[in-house]
Design brief:
alpha/beta, Spore Coat Polysaccharide Biosynthesis Protein SpsA, Chain A, seven-stranded mixed β-sheet, 6 helices, 9 strands
Length: 206
């Protein structure tokens, strides 16, 4: 199946003190660059970045910058909706959109392949990544056929909880091991950034 990837970077990054969290540096490279490096090869239709405000600050990004189409910072579902709308408008052959966050520098190389296989086996419209007994709601594979339903959920019903939306559609979880490192570790605080730096050093040593 032809898959478009979206990196979600529309959050306000309050726990990091504001600003664009994906542009924070980690061992000489931005978090966003690390996500693109790991995620991009898995998405044959290319990548887009969901971000609001002036797109020029992401000038090095290799794809389109797509803002939320719903006002008021309604959360990650708005980024998913923007990606599904972009896919339908600009990539008519795309049948599914893979989403990740812009602050997860250790994403697995088999992310999209395993999510797609699980979605096909189950027949569910969404497959979601899991590790350590926890689902990572924004790391998922979404059928483009969800577009109209998701738009209605956000705009007409004001539904903003990603987990509730996944549950309503019977999203199938796909689990990854957390050793030697949780591939879905995301950077929310300066302490998380220090941890990621230490993990990278450990990987380099090993």
């Amino acid at each position: 199946m032809t898959t478009l990837g979206v990196i979600l970077a529309g959050g306000l990054s309050r726990r990091m003190g504001g600003g664009d969290k994906p542009l924070r540096g980690l061992a000489g490279r931005t978090l966003l660059d690390r996500v693109v490096h790991r995620f991009g090869p898995q998405c044959p239709a290319g990548l887009i970045l969901n971000a609001n405000g002036d797109p020029a600050r992401f000038g090095a990004f290799p794809g389109a910058i797509v803002p939320d189409g719903v006002s008021g910072h309604p959360g990650p579902l708005a980024g998913i909706l923007a990606a599904l709308e972009h896919a339908r408008a600009h990539h008519p052959a795309v049948v599914e959109v893979a989403s990740v966050t812009g602050d997860a520098p250790f994403l697995p190389d088999d992310l999209v392949a395993r999510l797609a296989a699980a979605r096909r086996r189950s027949g569910a419209p969404i497959a979601v990544a899991s590790s350590g007994g926890r689902q990572h709601f924004t790391v998922a594979l979404w059928s483009v056929s969800l577009l109209d339903d998701l738009r209605a959920a956000l705009i007409e019903r004001d539904e903003r909880r990603v987990g509730a939306y996944l549950g309503r559609h019977g999203a199938v979880p796909v689990d990854w091991p957390i050793e030697p490192i949780d591939p879905f570790l995301n950077i929310n605080t300066p302490e998380d950034l220090d941890l990621a730096t230490a993990l990278l050093a450990r990987i380099a040593e090993g």
